[in-house]
Write a structure and sequence with these properties.
Belongs to the shikimate kinase family. Keywords: Amino-acid biosynthesis, Aromatic amino acid biosynthesis, ATP-binding, Cytoplasm, Kinase, Magnesium, Metal-binding, Nucleotide-binding, Transferase. There is one protein chain. By secondary structure, the protein is of the alpha/beta class. It has a single domain, classed as Rossmann fold. The protein has 8 helices and 5 strands. Strands 2-3-1-4-5 form a 5-stranded parallel β-sheet, sandwiched between helices. The longest helix has 19 residues, at 125-143. 38% of the residues are buried. The structure holds adenosine-5'-triphosphate (ATP), (3R,4S,5R)-3,4,5-trihydroxycyclohex-1-ENE-1-carboxylic acid and magnesium ion.
Length: 168
């Protein structure tokens, strides 16, 4: 069974896509992001999938993308911010090295800005982000084998801490 060297989970704006690329480069492995996989397979950006087919359809695509990536990717894998909502995805993560990139509301709000490209944050990003983060915090904790604080730190500092964790 192949397995990713590291799976990143966390709230929108926690930096999964950004830190994941830096980490993959530092480790000399490839980077994969299930959000990008879904967009490639669907042939359109995530906001358009939400508009055309709805969130339930997006979540079905996401479950398939998570299963496929966990089964085949050997580098760093970033999951979408809401992937942990599905019990199927949480079960699939058991036995994998899963790092939760934790972020508190002020930094998350600063990073996602007006929520461009994030359909769930299109209206009232701060309040929606707070709700999503409160709902998901226990789910990120459930799947994580390690948690790394990202607030006030650069992607390079965060990637260095994860590298140390993985090689410890
Ligand atoms: N540690 C950091 N410090 C400052 N800015 C950051 C940090 N990590 C990410 N960012 C910035 O925050 C924004 C969101 O980051 P990113 O897209 O990597 O988050 P994400 O966790 O992948 O979000 P999503 O769940 O929506 O895919 C980007 O503009 C990125 O440059
Ligand atoms: O937090 C979420 O539910 C999402 C986060 C993004 O990574 C994308 O997967 C999508 O915009 C949904
Ligand atoms: Mg991302």
């Amino acid at each position: 069974m192949t397995r990713p060297v590291c799976v990143l989970v966390g709230a929108p704006g926690s930096g999964k896509s950004t830190v994941g690329q830096v980490l993959a480069e530092a480790l000399g492995v490839s980077f994969r992001d299930t959000d990008a996989d879904i967009e490639r397979l669907a042939g359109k950006p995530i906001p358009e999938i939400f508009i055309d087919e709805g969130e339930a359809h997006f979540r079905a695509l996401e479950r398939a993308a998570v299963a496929a990536a966990l089964a085949s990717h050997t580098g760093v894998l970033a999951l979408g911010g809401g992937a942990v909502l599905a019990e199927e995805n949480r079960a699939a993560l058991i036995g994998h090295p899963v790092v939760h990139l934790s972020v508190e509301l002020p930094d998350a709000v600063r990073r996602v800005g007006l929520g461009a490209g994030r359909p769930l944050l299109a209206i009232n990003p701060r309040a929606t982000l707070k709700h999503l983060m409160d709902q998901r915090r226990p789910l990120y904790a459930e799947v994580a084998t390690a948690t790394v604080v990202t607030d006030g730190r650069t992607p390079e500092e965060i990637a260095a801490e994860i590298t140390a964790l993985l090689t410890a």
